[in-house]
Amino acid sequence: MIDKTQNNTGLRNYFVVTASYWAFTITDGAIRMLVVLYFHNLGYDPLDIAFLFLFYEFFGVVTNLVGGWIGSRLGLNTTMYAGLGLQVIALGMLAVDPIWLTVPYVMFAQALSGIAKDLNKMSAKASVKLMVPKNAHSTLFKWVAVLTGSKNSLKGAGFFIGSLLLATVGFRMALLLMAGALFVILVITASLLPGDLGKSKAKVKFSQVFSKTREINWLSAARFFLFGSRDVWFVVGLPVFLSAELGWSYTQVGGYLALWIVAYGLVQATAPQLLRKSHHRYGPDGQTARLWGFVLAAVPLGIALALGQGLDPALSVIIGLAIFGIVFAINSAVHSYLILAYSDHDKVAMNVGFYYMANAGGRLTGTVLSGWVYQTWGLVGCLWWSVGFVLAAALLSLRLPTHAQLQAMRLKS
Fold first, then answer.
1. Which of 50, 196, 233, 267 has the fewest Cβ atoms surrounding its Cβ within 10 A?
2. How much of the chain exceeds pLDDT 70, in percent?
């Protein structure tokens, strides 16, 4: 009875953290679309827009590095509350008179939003490992895929909500509405979570934030290039291309990108079913990561060649982006499973923080490059950079162990 009660309590806590993460994710997607479209309409060039997100991504790197340590020492509830609170402040900061919205000011507000996002992400992802029994590989793969996939679908919904609010109530009112709703979520979350969720039994030193595990280091390096490969053309280049080159309206751009992210999230959530024939007993391993990495590299390559040959740009991008979303979702789901599979229960917050530090670093690099490369070489140039990043991720995955190799390594340790 005690074990059952403890399991039910743990599951309830997990769902509270996850629901809070979902609510945050909607605002995260919405604020990104609001900023890109609003400042593009003000006449900002692509590189300037990219710089608006520079601190968002940079502080994501710092937050993931420190966030895992804070979560281990103080509990994941602390990082969750801090993330929600900072996002409310960031939304409020942007809802000021437009005369205040200079590039440095918006960069600072986006820095708070980036810190908030990664505190929430680390809290939710680390919780999965704590809720799944040891050695339940297929269950772990399923749970992390569902969590990550649903989060991405909701971020897509946030893209649409952001563009819709911009077109209906305007930039300032959209931000105020989201800030109020998220504050309510913060109050509800704080009333439901215990004070020691995810808190490490041992006192964790700050020097332990850097992983000393070889497979986690290689996986983190591959993650850096994987997410850089997406954001190098997706963050600034693609929305500006759709708006400026294809003449799409704000609602069309936001709606299309929202639909893409929702579909991407659904594929990610169903990745365990898509790969069940090869992973019916064990989850994915290093061989899976490198196979799907090389498959992904062919997709931006195909889009770049199609655009270079003068094929219909709208058709080339729409079809290519759909294929990219499917293959990228599988890659992301495999990586998200592997970081948890490689981590011990007591160190999961630290390892997840380190891993998402690399993720944020890739997003930072991709974001800055997206504006610069698009301004210099257009969308085709962004796609060629994406090909190079994906190939780097796939080559780094060559060092990830198979199931047999990982078992042998753990027996020796």
1. 196
2. 83
Range of the domain at 148: 2-199+208-412
Radius of gyration of the chain (CA): 20
Tokens linked to 374: 């698009």
Q: How far apart are CA 339 and CA 354, in angstroms?
A: 10
CB 281 within 8 A of CB 139: no
Written as six digits, the tokens of 379 are 């969308």
Burial of 123 (0-12, 13-18, 19+ CB in 10 A): buried
What span, in angstroms and rounded, lies between the C-alpha atoms of 167 and 252? 11
Token pair 């895992």: residue: 68
CATH code, domain with 108: 1.20.1250.20
Taking CA 62 as the corner, what is the angle to CA 181 and CA 231, rounded to the nearest 5 degrees? 75
In the chain, the number of structural domains is: 1
Region 256-266 average pLDDT: 84
- The answer to whether residue 1 scores a pLDDT higher than 50 is no
DSSP state of 397: G
pLDDT of residue 2: 42
Q: Specify the DSSP class assigned to residue 242.
A: I
Residue 74 has phi, psi (to 5 degrees) of -110, -15
Structure tokens at 127: 């919780």
Give me 289's structure tokens: 């990561």
Q: Is the pLDDT of residue 87 over 60?
A: yes
The 10 Å Cβ neighbour count of residue 84 is 24
Distance between CA atoms of residues 331 and 261, nearest Å: 15
